[in-house]
Write a structure and sequence with these properties.
Layout: H1 2-11, H2 13-26, H3 35-68, H4 96-141, H5 153-158, H6 160-215, H7 220-252, H8 254-259, H9 268-281, E1 288-289, E2 293-294, H10 297-319
Antiparallel strand pairs: 1-2
Helix pairs in contact: 1-4, 3-4, 3-7, 4-6, 4-7, 6-7, 6-9, 6-10, 7-10
């Protein structure tokens, strides 16, 4: 998976640059909707960063355990290595054993870093997109604030100044909404191919590690290591699924923000613009795995359920 993700980042440099430039140069600042929303957004990023740090720490912990405690017992007289490998030569003599040991640890570290770079970039893009939707909804909901507040609803409805002022604000919101939709579509294309093997790999790891843990959990060190590896794999899948679900919800809930605004004060041109915005919002932004399945919380639960079913089936077949 790490190799696939690194290739995806390398061969899509133009798209990666597009995502980064859009976030840094075209997305709204956090304070555009007021200090309260800004504090909420900052707190959101704080918790996301803590989650990413925990995920990375879990992976490093699993690597450290592999360095000091090999996952599989080696035959008597064979010096242990972090992973099982087959070679046509004897790996026991020095310095061959030490060289292989360092190379295998380096490969494991690169695997962790390769996954981390891609996952962190995905989190960076999705979280900024989510924040932009939060800001957009707040501005849409209060689109009439500060415009002839002292006038009655009838006076505001008949006021040309009010209609023009709100139309100017709405144009900015519509343009930004279209920008967010395009960003979301490009992000879905960017992640789609990677998420297909990610789903299969997560399922395979859950089944294999889950079966091993269910039949052999006497060795505390190996059990801890397997739990770390399995938990890291699940968090990796959850990074995509949970955020994709949140993105779908936030993108669709723009309709609620429009419904909660003072839309009844608008004349036909403004209402027409709102209708087109609602039509663009209905589908929302979805992240798919190869265009075959939507990646969301339901898929995450389904993978866990199917893995548990496979573990139960394996145990029943082997016990018979």
């Amino acid at each position: 998976m790490a190799v696939c993700k690194m290739f995806a980042l390398y061969f899509n440099k133009t798209k990666v640059a597009y995502f980064y430039d859009t976030v840094t140069n075209e997305f709204w600042d956090f304070d555009v909707a007021g200090p309260q929303i800004e504090q909420r957004v900052i707190k959101r990023f704080y918790y996301v960063n803590i989650t990413v740090l925990c995920h990375f720490s879990l992976s490093i912990m699993a690597l450290l355990l592999l360095i000091f405690f090999p996952l599989v017992d080696m035959p008597e007289g064979v010096r242990p290595l972090p992973n099982i490998i087959w070679t046509p030569f004897d790996t026991n003599p020095s310095p061959l054993h030490e060289i292989l040991y360092v190379v295998m640890i380096w490969n494991l570290l690169l695997s962790i870093l390769g996954n981390a770079f891609y996952d962190i970039f995905y989190i960076y893009c999705v979280q900024h997109l989510l924040v932009q939707y939060i800001l957009l909804k707040e501005l849409l909901q209060g689109i009439t604030l500060g415009v002839e507040q002292t006038c009655s609803d009838l006076e505001r409805f008949q006021s040309e100044y009010f209609q023009k002022a709100v139309m100017g604000r709405l144009k900015i919101c519509v343009e930004h909404h279209n920008k967010l939709l395009r960003f979301g579509r490009e992000l879905e294309k960017f992640c789609s191919r990677i998420l297909t093997p990610q789903l299969f790999m997560s399922y395979a790891v859950l089944v294999i590690n889950g079966y091993i843990l269910s039949v052999d959990h006497a060795d505390f060190t190996k059990t801890t290591m397997l739990f770390n590896l399995t938990g890291s794999c699940m968090i990796q899948l959850a990074v995509f699924a949970v955020q994709a679900s949140d993105l779908k919800e936030q993108s669709v809930s723009v309709i609620d923000a429009i419904a909660n605004s003072e839309w009844y004060l608008f004349k036909a041109p403004l209402k027409k613009a709102l209708v087109f915005m609602v039509m663009n919002t209905k589908k929302g932004i979805t992240i798919t795995a190869g265009g075959m399945a939507n990646v969301n919380n339901e898929v995450l639960v389904a993978v866990i359920q199917k893995a548990l079913s496979a573990i139960t089936l394996l145990r029943a077949l082997i016990e018979e």
